[in-house]
Design a protein that fits this description.
The protein has 184 residues and is mostly helical. It is 79% helix and 0% strand. The longest helix is centred in the C-terminal third of the chain and has 43 residues.
Length: 184
């Protein structure tokens, strides 16, 4: 049986790891990350509307991200900095829906407290990083890179929170499947 948390983790990795900041081509395009997130959400054991909304939102972000990546590959600066901030905002809204779905799935289970704590911290760091990066446009050019770096650092920290959460979910999912096999 496929582990949906593996697909969620891989999708987050594709979205967060951006090698273009180091002058390298982005070999991990975001649209593949959103596709992986959509598939991982599809594998989650739930029939709640949150699952449908989250999966559809991931598909919309995948399409938008594809066009942003295509424009970058062709050398166009189509979305600009405001467009990138808009995509970050949509990603934060998307992660809100994903965490609401995970909270629904893990309700009254051992992972409920961990899901809620990770959700609170993840959202706080992502929103702070987003606000700092969004307002770095208005900062003097000598301070712009520093403020942008601080915002990026907060968002990377939220990614590491998700990695730790993934490890707990992966372990729980593995134990759950082993118990199903033993009970047969």
């Amino acid at each position: 049986m496929k582990n949906p948390y593996d697909y969620l983790f891989n999708g987050m990795g594709f979205i967060f790891i951006d090698l273009s900041a180091f002058g390298l081509p982005d070999i991990l395009p975001d649209f593949i990350g959103y596709l992986s997130l959509a598939y991982g959400i599809n594998l989650l054991p739930s029939f709640h509307n949150l699952k449908r909304w989250s999966k559809n939102f991931a598909i919309i972000l995948m399409i938008m991200s594809f066009f942003v990546e295509l424009a970058q590959w062709l050398g166009y600066k189509v979305p600009g900095e405001i467009g990138i901030h808009f995509m970050q905002f949509l990603f934060i809204v998307f992660m809100y829906w994903v965490f609401q779905l995970l909270l629904h799935i893990h309700n009254n289970k051992p992972l409920e407290a961990k899901t809620f704590k990770t959700y609170q911290k993840f959202m706080a760091f992502m929103l702070c990083g987003f606000v700092i990066q969004a307002f770095s446009i208005n900062v003097d050019t000598s301070m712009r890179e520093i403020t942008h770096f601080i915002g990026s650092l907060l968002q990377v920290f939220s990614y590491f929170l998700f990695i730790f959460y993934y490890r707990a979910c992966h372990k729980y999912y593995k134990e759950l499947n082993e118990n199903k096999v033993h009970s047969l």
